[in-house]
Amino acid sequence: VQRCVDALAGRDVDLAIIPAGTSNLLASALRVPDSPKDAVRVALDGATRVLDTGTVNGEHFAVVAGAGMDALLVRDAGSGLKDKIGRAAYVYTGVKHAGFDAFDVDVEVDGERVFRGKSTSVLIGNVPGGVGGLEVFDSSDPDDGVLEVGVVTAEGPLQMVRAVARTVLGRAEDSPFLRTSSGHDVVLQFGRPVPYEVDGGDRKPTRLLE
């Protein structure tokens, strides 16, 4: 879906989605039915809507782009594990990388610095759902004209568990380990090369996302 979004962004072409993945985050955000038959019916007869997209290092995305630990979860879960155990793959890989070392990051949103310090993951979202189906940005909407930015400051297994528990049981944005902002232009500068992901596809480490 991300590849199609990247190819069609900015063009006067309709995009239809037939959910077939593990989380189906964009389809869920747009309330596309899980049933292929019903999804095709929506594709042929449903109403169209304009969808926001973000651009990170030259690639368009419609759900979320992220750097740090979430990129490692995407990479490891996508190496065949997700096909075997579904969403539990994210839990398994999350435990595996609970000791991921925080990195220095400078975050600018619309030209203003909103964070500078240590982080284990930085997320740029267009819909509420993120890696593993967790709703990170409760107030996000795929056509509200802005992107949500979340900086995860949790370090070590205990803080990671607390951050995930807050996301599952309450509002992620209320977590003391998540700094949030929103805007149109986001620039992330890292103190070391950090792996990143675009709509669930892992990419090579970089020191800059813009």
Spans of at least 5 consecutive residues with low confidence: 85-90
Distance between the termini: 21 Å
Estimate percent helicity: 25-40%
Q: Secondary-structure element sequence?
A: HHHEEEHHEEEEHEEE
Name the overall outline.
globular
- Please report the number of helical segments: 6
What kind of sheet is the major sheet?
8 strands, antiparallel
Report Rg.
17 Å
DSSP strand count = 10
Binned strand content: 25-35%
SS-derived structural category? alpha+beta
Instruction: Calculate the mean pLDDT score and round it.
Output: 82
Q: Could you walk me through the main structural features you see in this protein, from its secondary elements to its overall organization?
A:
- The protein has 210 residues and is of the alpha+beta class.
- It is built from six helices and ten strands.
- Strands 3, 4, 5, 6, 7, 8, 9 and 10 form an eight-stranded antiparallel beta sheet that branches.
- Helix 4 (69-85) crosses helix 5.
- Residues 85-90 have low confidence and may be disordered.
A few lines on this structure:
With 210 residues, the protein is of the alpha+beta class. It has helices at residues 2-8, 25-29, 36-45, 69-85, 88-96, 156-169, and strands at residues 54-56, 59-61, 64-68, 103-109, 112-119, 121-125, 147-152, 178-183, 186-198, 201-209.
Features:
two-stranded antiparallel ribbon; alpha+beta; eight-stranded antiparallel β-sheet; 10 strands
